Amino acid sequence: MLEVLNPATEEVVERLEPATEADADAAVARAKRAFPAWRDIKPSDRSRLLRRLAEALDAERESLAQLESRNTGKPIGDARDEMGMVVETFHYYAGAPERLLGDTIPVAGGVDVTFREPLGVVGLIVPWNFPLTIASWKMAPALAAGNTLVLKPAELTPLTALEFERIAREAGIPEGVVNVLVGPGSKVGKRLVEHPDVAKVAFTGSTEVGRGIMASAAGTIKRVTLELGGKSANVVFADADLEKAAASAPVAVFGNAGQDCCARSRILVQRGVFDEFLSLMEPAVTSMRVGDPLDEATDMGPLISADHRENVASYVPDGAPVAIRGEAPEGSGFWFPPTVLAPLSNDDRAAAEEIFGPVVAVIPFEDEGDAVRLANDTVYGLSGSIWTQNGARALRVARRIETGVLSINSNTSVRVGTPFGGMKQSGFGRELGPHALDYYTEVKNVYLATEEG
Ligand code: NAP
Ligand code: MG
């Protein structure tokens, strides 16, 4: 039996029978049977069904947020925001079925047109940090483009995905179009990646598992998109609005208890303002309220599991240069306090590896060139921020930093209407925005000869 825990209390929230490889095969078979009808449904009807699904999700938004908060330990306010994004994502892609336009291309002797066709059955594998949110970034464009899907949530956090399956059915999404499979990645996830009837796997998770998925996908020449780890830099120049940058830097890394692929877990600060920046940041760290996720005043909840906490703690050994540390509850729950390590060098383990917890490395830099070099001195390339009041410098540096997503004088990464994804070992492919549809469709080119004789 799979025991699903509340990481804030360590209590069992639900017991589930985990799926097997045979269940994965059955789910793929259901999705395969459902595909032709879903592909061929009138675009306006597919659009209407997705709109209805968005409304049904909206109607259950509060209970979904409560469930997500209990299963992940994330603060209820954050869970509410996330469910708002889930609803918005389905509304956004509900408009897509009637707008999947092709091209007409000038050629000699005839007419040439392209069609954007769905891939078929897609396998969606997602992590535990933003369970339903990340699933929605994949499900909504996949369905809008006419694919059917099998979703495999992380075993630690499967509850909102199961609710989603019910809500989709009740909203009238045809049988077999949405299938949720709760089981271990090493078995049912692997089976989806190897299955000959799965046309594409969209994966979000660790770079290590992503590497294995990419290798296994080779067997069936399966399409893959990978959203992997990150070690994003928050670059603070001496000419920045330091108070604003320092006040928002803790949220940018300790949000979701640091379990965020976009966490700005390296803060690069220009040397002349290094100490000033740390003292400005201190109150924002020590005043963070870490505790009961269902309390509206809570800023940060626990980590996802005991194993994960142990791993995070290994980055703060005795003698580590802890410059600032917040508080965390004692007793049951996988708590870990917000922790600022400074000064660190970019080569230190805590600065080089993705920690995925509330630990941030603060690193000094000399000048613009040094900042760019340090920001890029990582295998990852997902997100990041630049703080400066010099607009030309902001854009110059933004063009040089090797990440898929950047923000200037802001720590935000994700919007429903804009593309999100990584460079380098943070993966490839883009989610959200119009771009996501490219990764759930195939371009077909058709030439019609029009010359007589
Ligand atoms: P993970 O261990 O890579 O697992 C992600 C998903 O893959 C889970 O559903 C897991 O299933 C499944 N899985 C594990 N082994 C598999 C295999 N051999 N074949 C197929 N599926 C397999 O990642 P995580 O620990 O859940 O999440 C943390 C990581 O996700 C971090 O590295 C973070 O940076 C990354 N992440 C990236 C983004 C992004 O958009 N770039 C967003 C969020 C998180 P089970 O766990 O159920 O076994
Ligand atoms: Mg894992």
CATH topology value of the largest domain: Aldehyde Dehydrogenase, Chain A, domain 1
Integer tally of domains: 2
Mean pLDDT: 98
Strand content: 15-25%
Task: Just give the CATH class of the largest domain.
Answer: Alpha Beta
Order of adjacent strands in the largest pleated sheet: 12-13-14-11-10-15-16
List key phrases describing it:
Aldehyde Dehydrogenase, Chain A, domain 2; Aldehyde Dehydrogenase, Chain A, domain 1; binds NADP nicotinamide-adenine-dinucleotide phosphate; 453 residues; 7-stranded mixed beta sheet; 18 strands; 14 helices; binds magnesium ion; 2 domains; alpha/beta
Describe what you observe in this structure.
By secondary structure, this protein is an alpha/beta fold. The protein has two domains: 2-228 and 422-448, 3-Layer(aba) Sandwich (Aldehyde Dehydrogenase, Chain A, domain 1), CATH 3.40.605; 233-408, Aldehyde Dehydrogenase, Chain A, domain 2, CATH 3.40.309.10. It contains 14 helices and 18 strands. It has a seven-stranded mixed beta sheet, with helices on both faces. Strand 10 (233-236), helix 9 (242-254) and strand 11 form a beta-alpha-beta unit. It starts with a strand and ends with a strand. The model has no long low-confidence stretch (mean pLDDT 98).
